Structures are given as C-alpha cells and as structure tokens.
C-alpha cells in the first residue's frame, strides 16, 4: 500500500495541538487537559497541562475492564535459568496490586522516589507499574551496576526505598545484588528507609531487619488486596532514567506521565505497525530506555503482549535463541540493537540457525541504539526475509525521532538511514554557528522546539544543566549531539556522535562512514573507528575490527585489504592507514561501543573505567593491541 506518511506529517505540521489531541484519545484520562500544549510552563512548554491520569491504570486496569483480562500481558523466557512463564492481564493486575499494597504499607506515596535494581524478570515490570500505580517516581538502575555508580544515583534521586532481586544471572556467573546495594548505601549520604528483595533460588540474599524486607513473602500476605490508582498530573514525573553525562556526573532524564503514554501508543500503531493483542518483543533490558518504552509501557498501554527475556543473542545456548523465541511465541514485530545482530552474524554467518525455526509470524525487524551499518541490515534482510527498519532516538526522547512508519505504509528503505522524521519532530541540520546547511552536507542534527510529547521536560533537579546540555548552543533548537545529513529526499543519515567527527588535516570526516566501509569487507563481523592524535594532521583514523568465525586469512592480509578498501571508497583524504584486529570490542551493557574510552587509551590520556561497561577485561586487551601496533608508545 502507498504510505500515508507525507499526509500525516503535513497534518501534524499544520496543526500540532490538534494532532496530539487526537492521539490522546487512545489514553484514558481522569480529567482532560486544560491545554494540549502550554508554552508558558517549563523550559520549552508542557504537554496536556491540567490533565490527570495514571500510567498503571492505562497499562493494566483498563485492559482487564475492557475484555483483555485473560489475554497474555507478559511472556517470560529465561534460557539462562531454564524458566518460562506467562502472566495474563488479570494476573499482572493481581501482582501489581499486591506489590503496591506492600509499598504503601511501608510509606511509599505519590512523589516519592524508588530505585528499581533488577535483572530481566517479570517482577521488574511489576515494580515499575506498582510505583506508577501509587504515583511514586521510579528510577531503574541496571541490576549489577557498580556500587559507587548506584550511590551517585541514590544521592541524586534520594529514594525512599530500593526494590531489588537477590541476584542476576549471566551465562557464566551469578551476581549477588544485595552486597552491591549495601555497599552503595554505605557510600551514599542519603539512606533509603527500606530495601525490598525478591529472593531468587540461585542466590538468596541475607536480609537485615528492619530495613530489608522479603518482598515475595510480603506480597503473598497482601494477596487479594486492591490498591486504587492514584491520579497524577499528566506533567508529573513517571520516572527518572540516568544517562551518562560528559562530566562523569549522571544526568537524570525526567519522563512525564501523560505525554509519554500518548507518544508510545501512537508509535505502537503507526511506527511499529502493531495491533492490540499482538506480540511485540524488544530484546533489551529495563535498565535502558528501550526497556522502559517498549518492554514495559508501550506494549502494555497499547494492549499488546510483551516479552521479558533473560539471556543473550548468542551463547544461551546458541545463535538461534532469538529465532526460537520469535517462532515459539508468535512475535509480530521484533526490536533489537545492531550489535546483537552482528554477534549472531559472527557466530552464524550463513544464517543456518534461522532456518531451524518457522518465523513466518514475523512481519518486521526494527533496529536502534546505535548506527545500523548497511552490511548488517542487508545480511538480516537476506537471512531473516522481512523488512529491516532502522530508527533513531535517544534516552532523552523516549521514542523515535526518525523512523520508517510501518503502520502508515512502509517507505522505501535506504541503507544507512533511519528514514524520516516522525510527526512531532522538525529535524534540521545546522553548522556550528547554527545556520542551516544544504542537502547532503554533514552538520549538527537539531530539533526545532517545542519537542513532542514524551521528550524530557528537564533533568531531575538540574534545570540549568538541562539548558546548558541541550538548549543553549543552538537557541530555539534541541541539540541531539549527533552529526548527520539530510539528503534530497528528506531522508536523515546519522553519521556519528558530534564528538565522533574527526578532523583530519582540516577535513571533517565521519567515523560512521569509515565503519560502513570496513563492515562491508566479507571477513569483518563488526568494527569501530576512532580518531587518534596526529602531530601533522590533528587526527588520524584508526579502525578496530572483529573477524567472523572461521576466517583463515592472516590479520596482516585483512588489515591491508581494509586500508585499500577505505582508500578506494572514501579516498586518500581519509588518511586511513591503521587497522587493528581484536577478538572483541569494549561495549556498554546496552551494546554501545566505548569509542571515547578507546580513543583515550590510544592517545595515552587518563581514563576512568566506564560504569556501564559489560566486561572490564576487554580494555586491557584493547590496550595491548594498540601498543603492539606502536600507537601511543
């Protein structure tokens, strides 16, 4: 079918308030908005001012009332523990009510903050929803996060309580959470009154009365109790989600209740092309924004079925895990990170594991979280056999800035592009002085204010920092801190974070463009390009590559071929003369490559161990590989 995108986007542009007022009909409100958009509130205005609602009511209660009580709300699949399970909307409501009762009995009320420190188990979602039911503000911190980092979040959010599991389970180890929490509370000036612990059989925690409470036992005692959903203002915070700041001090992104639900409900239908009752799977984690938006709130507010997956794309037990789950549960739309696909491609380059499963239920595969290199997209298109849709957004926005709106009729895919701006976003590219640049010219990607519903209204207790981080550099615009270009057809290409643009002898070059070339080499599984200090040129590019399984050529031969490939595709201007073969790349838990840390190591600058790193040992390997090439020696 022909896409309705242009007409829908033009309709939003002509009447933004009318567009979002219409989208808001998908949400149940206790009190309607006085104003769809109030430009006098907050740094750039607030959506649905004066309205009252409750996110938990919209995600759970109304579906039970409206005939979805027996529909599956949450599917749990943990290949790590060998556990599977399902919760209907009625069972989810019962669990949320029981947890809400326990929290309320211990003094948690509207406006209080609660840190959720959880692995990927259904009670992670129950915890978020129970907080939302009471009007409390949750802040999910990735389970297993280091004590010092957890302490900075405790001091910033000042939570009344922490909800945690006793442990998290990785493919080769069990991580006890309680000692990390105890240590974090010791480090922090603020002391939460309670730690509610979900005891897991793999490693139960030692509880210290009266602060520590066995949450499942308390919920059993509260079974059958009903706790009313507390009405909150649409503009009240639903959650705080910390994202790493350039100063090392985390930034608490605030998400409101009303606009968040409106944008997510619109995106489920129009961007992801999902219908209520269908199975939507975002293979992420609740510690990240994707987990908030599209494991917990988006699918449930929309009346869909969501999957909580405790495992990895490879090794639990093999690179066929994703396809098994899609087949077993009838997944209609699947959302993952390019890094997960690259891991699968590395272990299963011919897609043999895909062929073992009937995945005919799958209509679309969505990618986000980092740049989707064309080689990975093309591999997935060929092997999975469905449209592969890159889309681009940020922790700060909570949903896609740009994407390919499947529900409005899919647009032609251009590899390397997340397609076009979604309604609500007027995306532009400007130079460093804030002047618009022409089509095809690399520059700073910005969004004209006001931002649409769901985007952060500010940072937690840090309005000044919000201004300086996002609004001051380009007045009238939100700074995405990404660099990119818009082509003649209006397609956006995100090339790098602005601090990943390297300056080689006066030429501004995108590391993303070079990575695209390296990834096209048939022996390369994944890669990263950084700029390293060069006395003559300012910076020189250095490429790190991980090879596919079973490659027999020597590293020297492949590195030589890569240097020739970049010269051929980008030209001598790139001055690409350094390729380094490594076994793996350092990444965050969400799969982002730690290019900044690699650059500091290469340039012999001081660096700190990133709090979000998945495996700290990788950085030693990277340093050895860098020095072996004579870099920074």
Structure explained in plain terms:
The chain is of the alpha/beta class. It folds into 2 domains: 5-311 and 391-484, 3-Layer(aba) Sandwich (Rossmann fold); 505-628, ANL, C-terminal domain (GMP Synthetase, Chain A, domain 3), CATH 3.30.300.30. It is 32% helix and 25% strand. It contains 18 helices and 31 strands. The strands form 10 sheets. It has a 7-stranded mixed beta sheet with strand order 5-4-17-16-18-19-20, sandwiched between helices. α1 (5-14) crosses α2 and α9 crosses α10 (289-302). The longest helix is centred in the first third of the chain and has 17 residues, at 89-105. The radius of gyration is 24 Å and the shape is globular. The protein starts with a helix and ends in a 5-residue tail after the last helix. 53% of the residues are buried.
Output the keywords.
single chain; 633 residues; alpha/beta; Rossmann fold; GMP Synthetase, Chain A, domain 3; 2 domains; 7-stranded mixed beta sheet; 5-stranded parallel beta sheet; 32% helix; globular
């Amino acid at each position: 079918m022909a896409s309705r995108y242009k007409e829908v986007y033009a309709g939003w542009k002509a009447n933004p308030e009318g567009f979002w007022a219409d989208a808001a009909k998908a949400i149940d409100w206790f009190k309607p908005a006085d104003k769809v958009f109030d430009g006098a509130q907050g740094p750039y205005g607030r959506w649905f001012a004066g309205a009252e609602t409750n996110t938990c009511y919209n995600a759970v209660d109304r579906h039970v009332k409206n005939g979805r009580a027996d529909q599956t709300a949450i599917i749990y699949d943990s290949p790590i523990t060998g556990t599977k399970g399902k919760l209907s909307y009625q069972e989810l409501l019962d669990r949320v009510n029981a947890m809400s009762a326990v929290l309320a009995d211990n003094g948690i009320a509207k406006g209080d903050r609660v840190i959720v420190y959880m692995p990927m188990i259904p009670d992670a979602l129950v915890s978020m929803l129970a907080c939302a039911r009471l009007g409390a503000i949750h802040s999910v911190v990735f389970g297993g996060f280091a004590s010092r980092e957890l302490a900075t979040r405790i001091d910033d959010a000042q939570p009344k309580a922490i909800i945690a599991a006793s442990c998290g389970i990785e493919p080769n180890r069990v991580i006890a959470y309680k000692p990390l929490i105890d240590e974090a509370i010791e480090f922090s000036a603020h002391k939460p009154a309670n730690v509610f612990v979900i005891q897991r059989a793999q490693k139960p925690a030692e509880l210290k009365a009266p602060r520590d409470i066995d949450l499942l036992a308390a919920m059993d005692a509260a079974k059958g109790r009903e706790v009313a959903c507390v009405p909150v203002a649409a503009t009240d915070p639903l959650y705080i989600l910390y994202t790493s700041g350039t100063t090392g001090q985390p930034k608490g992104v605030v998400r409101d209740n009303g606009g968040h639900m409106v944008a997510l409900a619109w995106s489920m239908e129009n961007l992801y092309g999902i219908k209520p009752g269908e199975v939507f799977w975002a293979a992420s984690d609740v510690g990240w924004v994707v987990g908030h938006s599209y494991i917990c709130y988006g699918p449930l507010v929309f009346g869909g079925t969501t999957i909580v997956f405790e495992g990895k794309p490879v090794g639990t037990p093999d690179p066929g895990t994703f396809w098994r789950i899609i087949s077993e549960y009838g997944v209609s739309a699947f959302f993952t990170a390019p890094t997960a696909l690259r891991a699968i491609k590395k272990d299963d380059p011919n897609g043999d594991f895909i062929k073992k499963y009937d995945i005919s239920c799958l209509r679309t595969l969505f990618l986000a979280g980092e740049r989707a290199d064309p080689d990975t997209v093309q591999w997935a298109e060929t092997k999975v056999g469905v449209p592969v849709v890159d889309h681009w957004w940020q922790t700060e926005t909570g949903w896609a800035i740009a994407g390919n709106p499947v529900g409005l009729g899919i647009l032609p895919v251009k590899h390397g592009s997340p397609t076009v701006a979604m309604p609500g976003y007027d995306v532009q590219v400007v130079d460093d002085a804030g002047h618009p640049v022409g089509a095809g010219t690399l520059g700073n990607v910005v969004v004209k204010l006001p931002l649409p519903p769901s985007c952060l209204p500010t940072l937690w207790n840090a309005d000044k920092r919000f201004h300086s981080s996002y609004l001051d550099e380009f007045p009238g615009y939100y700074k995405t801190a990404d660099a990119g270009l818009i082509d003649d057809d209006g397609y956006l290409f995100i090339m790098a974070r602005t601090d990943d643009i390297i300056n080689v002898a006066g030429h501004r070059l995108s590391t993303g463009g070079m990575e695209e070339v390296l990834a096209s080499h048939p022996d390369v599984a994944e890669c990263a390009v950084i700029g390293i200090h060069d006395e003559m040129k300012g910076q020189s590019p250095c490429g790190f590559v991980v090879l596919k399984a079973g490659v027999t050529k020597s590293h020297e031969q492949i590195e030589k071929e890569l240097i020739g490939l970049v010269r051929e595709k980008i030209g001598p201007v790139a001055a690409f003369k350094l390729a380094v073969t490594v076994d793996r790349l350092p990444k965050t838990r969400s799969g982002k490559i730690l290019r900044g840390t690699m650059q500091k190591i290469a340039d012999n600058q001081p660096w700190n161990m990133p709090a979000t790193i998945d495996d700290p040992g990788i950085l030693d390997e990277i340093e050895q590989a860098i020095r072996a090439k004579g870099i920074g020696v």
